[in-house]
Amino acid sequence: MGKRADKRRERAGERRARRGGSDKGAPELPELATHPWYSRTGELAETGMRVMARRLPSVIGQAARLAWRASRADTAVTISLNLLAGVFTAFGLLATTGVLTALFSAGPTPGRVRDALPSLALVAGAAALRAALQAGAGWSQARLEPQVERLVELRLYEATTMVALAALDDPDFLDELKRAETRGLTAAPRVVQHAVDVLTGAVGLVAAAGTLGVLHPLLLPLLLLTALPEGWTSVRSARMRYLTLLKLVEVGRRKWILSDLMTERRHAAEVRSFTMRPFLLEEYDRFAAYQRGVELDLARRQTVAKVAGDALQGLATGAVYVALGLMLWKGAVPLAVAGTAVLAIRTGQTSLANLVFAVNQCYEQGLYFGDYLTFCDTAEARIPRRALPSAAKEEEEVLPDDFACIRVEDVTFTYPGADAASLRGISLELRKGEVVALVGENGSGKSTLSRVIAGLYDPDGGEVAWDGVPLSRVSPEQVWDRVAVIAQEYTHWPMTARENIAMGRGGGPADPAVLAAARASGADEVVAELARGYDTLLDRRFQGGADLSGGQWQRLAVARGFYRDAPLLICDEPSAALDARAEHLLFERIRAHTDGRTVLLITHRLASVRYADRIYVLEHGRVIEEGDHAALMARGGLYAELYGLQAAAYGAADPPAAQRSPAGRPNSDRTSTVKN
Ligand SMILES: Nc1ncnc2c1ncn2[C@@H]1O[C@H](COP(=O)(O)OP(=O)(O)OP(=O)(O)O)[C@@H](O)[C@H]1O
Predict the structure, then answer these.
(1) In the chain, what are the domain boundaries?
(2) 442 alpha carbon to ligand 1 midpoint, in Å?
(3) Which of 169, 313, 436, 555 has the highest local Cβ count within 10 Å?
(4) Is the minimum distance from the CB of 360 to ligand 1 under 6 angstroms?
(5) Residue 440 Cβ contacting ligand 1 at under 6 Å
(6) 423 membership: H or E segment, kind and range
(7) Which CATH class is domain 405-647?
(8) Distances (CA, A) of 13 to 10, 46, 85
(9) 57-112 confidence digits (pLDDT tens)
């Protein structure tokens, strides 16, 4: 199916190229390629009236189901008021015949006008009612849209926050997510809106057609004749627009990236210090010029299509009036009926133009909405079953609140789409109250292993068990509740300092645990300098917001880990950005810390793991050495080598007294780290 569509697209592309290309006059930028996110746009560009007609019912069905779930009352009101408005349109048109019959009859004018008054009142009443009904339908339709929006957004975010973490490492999944988020979300309310417009247009058209059918059966095909050029122009113009969109997708992305570089605060210093301004402006202008060329070309081609369409429509309308004149001349229809027919044809044409436009829009947005639906289905299928509230609770085991021993047995793990496994048969133990360290070179698998232990990734093989209860048999929340993580990469939450520590748990103004955690991590010194202390918003994008240095942020991230009263604390490179004093304080705290808690420590600062109860050395996803510092040093393996390298580096950096800094201050922090 996908391949056939690709072939169709290819062939159509070749046809366009043979015709001289659809974008004659637009400059070329050879480096631009279409991103697969926008494959839909290509599909759309090849869509003709037949494909649209075939797929439209299912799109309208999806829209109707969505609207129904968002609000039954508003959906029912929108549909029924629109239908009723159609009835009054037809009624008004038919009443017009009465008016015209009275006006065109023989006799003095005042008498004819008097005779026409009852029908005139009916026409006026029908018009007023129709207007009121349409206003009511518009109002309920407007109410429907935000409700639909809320529904689709919630479904997406519920799925993205619950899906297995590994899904977010899968490039295909991320691609689908981006598509659903950027186009799919906004498409949902539009699909509903355009589906209602399709209904409104269809009702108006049926009303006009029904009226014509009642007046004379031959008039009906005449209406359709005038409809064709309008439909043709509309579809053609829309397809041109899609093709242009396709051409501009990559340009839009490049321009967006460049504008981000030129306007975002985080790039501003480098833009200046590397004197990037002329380069960025020139690049931006190149893409903008290309875009302008493509858009001007589109405007020209759309105008040509419109002129051709209007000319055709003029001819068709002329033919209709000639036919109507002939019918009148031959006495097939009376003058009053012909007059009403003219009105009905005009009403029908307007409804038809609206209908064609709505069908086009509905179809386009329906494709993007389809992306959204596909993504939600994929994401919901990737939520671990045991995480679902509906999962059979009797099958679930309960994790002990505390534990005596966490056992990792023969664990293997490969990231989605990765060629090689990141963990290959790892076994180890964490006993209550211990500090256990993971050591190894970059990419050896330390962080991945810590995430498996924290219940963030499910291993492909082997298992992690807390006092014999395998994590695969408990809901992820149970594990996350019992583990505190100080992660290597942490989020700068755009919240207050207090919320950055408490992370949605307690943390009221008088929460002593927040203060204790801040003291233990050195975050209290950071907070003391903030204008509003713990209530300072840590985001410069907002009025009164503050920002912190890398190390200050890390102190907060450490406080976050200490604040959670969990039996297992995982510290993954917790000191990378800390100054020497803060780092010293942190490891002192970890060493002294335990008060019954267990610490899994990952760090390249080997001086800090000397006091660990056990050290596991990882290489290429395997444990290659295990023991305490003394045992590993005596063994003379990788650990001893890495430790020796660091110790030697510190030793070499220790300047003799004569070479100290001009101020004569020895570097006491460094010395103390080595001595530690
Ligand atoms: N999200 C990911 N998707 C695919 N592969 C990944 C991902 N994260 C890590 N890897 C790969 O898994 C392996 C182990 O990475 P991991 O981050 O666990 O190493 P690490 O020992 O913590 O390294 P470092 O000391 O640099 O922090 C590496 O080969 C890495 O390329």
Answers:
(1) 41-385, 405-647
(2) 8
(3) 555
(4) no
(5) yes
(6) strand 423-431
(7) alpha beta
(8) 5, 9, 44
(9) 888 888 889 899 999 999 999 989 988 888 888 888 778 777 777 777 666 667 76
